[in-house]
Amino acid sequence: MIGKLGSFENPSADLSEPLDLYLHGYVSSRIMNVARKAAQGEEEGTTPLKVCVCATKVDGLVLSLTPNSHSMNYRSSVIFGTVELVMDLDEKLYAMKLITDGVLPNRYDDTRVPPDSAEMQSTQILKVTIDHASAKIRTGQPGDYEKDMKRDDLREKTWTGVIPVYQAFGEPQAASYNRVKDVPDYITNYVKEHGEAEKEYALTCIDKEAAGKS
C-alpha cells in the first residue's frame, strides 16, 4: 500500500512531532473491509483494530568472504498503531494530496482536482494512530571472521565489497495523448534530484568501517 506520515490537525508538523500514517487503497480491498467491520464493531463495544506496518529499503548488497557473513545495507521500520477509516471529507482530501505529493512532489495540484464523487467513493483512506515504532539501520562494509582474514588464498580469490543499491528514475516518456510540449520543471527536477540523493546516500553508507568478527 501507498502511505505517508502527516498530521491533519497540524499540517506543518515534522518528524519531531506526533504524526499519523495515512494509507491509500481501493474501497473494497480486504484491509478496507476489515477496517470497516472493526469500526462497526467498535460501535458495539469491541476493541479498536490494531495493525502493524513494516517498510524496508535496501541500500547495498554487502559481499564478504563467506556466505554466512553476507549482508545488506538497509533502512527498516515497524509501526504499531490503531487504525480507523477516514470519513471526514476535508481530512480525506488532505490525505489524498499528502500521499500523491509524497510520491511526486507538487503533482496533486497539477492535475484535475478535487476528485469527483465517484473517485471519492471508490477510494478509501486509513489513518493509523501510532502507538509505538522502531527502526533498524545497517551501514558499512563487510565484516569477516578473523580466521578468514588470515587466509591470503581466500582473500586473493574472493571479491569483497558493497554493491550500492539506489532508486533512479528514467527519462520521462510522454503519453500518446499528451499535449504539453515540455515536461514540467517539478518533474524533471525531482527525477534528477531524487536520483542524486539516493545514490549519494547509498555510497555514503559504504564509508563506515565494519568491525571484524572473531
From TrEMBL:
Pfam families attached to this UniProt entry: Pyridox_ox_2
Top-rank taxon, per record: Eukaryota
PANTHER family, per the entry: 5-NITROIMIDAZOLE ANTIBIOTICS RESISTANCE PROTEIN, NIMA-FAMILY-RELATED PROTEIN-RELATED, FLAVIN-NUCLEOTIDE-BINDING PROTEIN
Protein name: Flavin-nucleotide-binding protein
Native organism: Orbilia brochopaga
Lineage of source species: Eukaryota, Fungi, Dikarya, Ascomycota, Pezizomycotina
